[in-house]
Write a structure and sequence with these properties.
By secondary structure, the chain is mainly α. The protein is about 85% helix and about 0% strand. It is built from five helices and no strands. The termini are far apart. About 5% of the residues have low confidence.
Length: about 180
């Protein structure tokens, strides 16, 4: 069990490094992309990248080594870096000039709250699944099953978020078109 935990810790450190590296490199490119592509297209597209990364991470097996995480974490890193730039652009797009600072601060605050809540929720899922698997003796390495459960939950939440975003932007686009034709 100690060997599995040490291996998992090393894996998580490498995953964090891969994700941070990808996020920092693509955010400036995405900011330019966000100015040229409508928010209604770029926001769901970046959310799809994050969801796809979570799905790929969730396919980790008992016999896989740490490099199996890398494709999913790179996709997640690109998606998160893109999503950050697009979300910031969206928060400033819909705010007046005098309220831009308040909009940016509100976005930053809510993002931090969302991350803290998500980490706590996924940590609870991880703990619950790992404990149940360890007690029942079902899995040789209960942390792997718990990690896959977290990734599946993240994938489902991401997919639902993409659908909600697409519906919301379609409704907004229809409303904007109706208002323009009524003038």
């Amino acid at each position: 069990m100690a060997i599995a935990s040490a291996a998992l810790c090393r894996t998580v450190n490498r995953i964090v490094a891969a994700t941070c590296g990808s996020t920092g490199r693509n955010a400036p490119v995405t900011a330019t992309f966000a100015r040229r592509v409508p928010i209604g297209v770029s926001l769901p597209a970046t959310m799809v990248l994050v969801t796809a990364g979570m799905y790929v991470v969730g396919t980790f097996g008992h016999d896989d080594n740490w490099t199996r995480f890398l494709p999913g974490m790179i996709i997640d890193g690109v998606g998160l870096g893109s999503l950050t730039a697009v979300n910031q652009a969206a928060s400033l797009t819909f705010a007046s000039q005098e309220n831009a600072g308040m909009s940016s601060a509100t976005f930053g605050t809510l993002r931090q709250i969302g991350m803290a809540t998500g980490i706590a929720g996924l940590g609870a899922v991880f703990s619950h699944v790992a404990q149940n698997k360890a007690e029942s003796g079902v899995a040789a390495i209960p942390e792997i099953d718990a990690l896959n459960s977290m990734a599946v939950l993240g994938t489902v939440i991401g997919a639902v978020s993409v659908v909600i975003a697409v519906i919301a932007f379609a409704i907004d686009h229809g409303r904007t078109r109706r208002c323009a034709s009524a003038r």
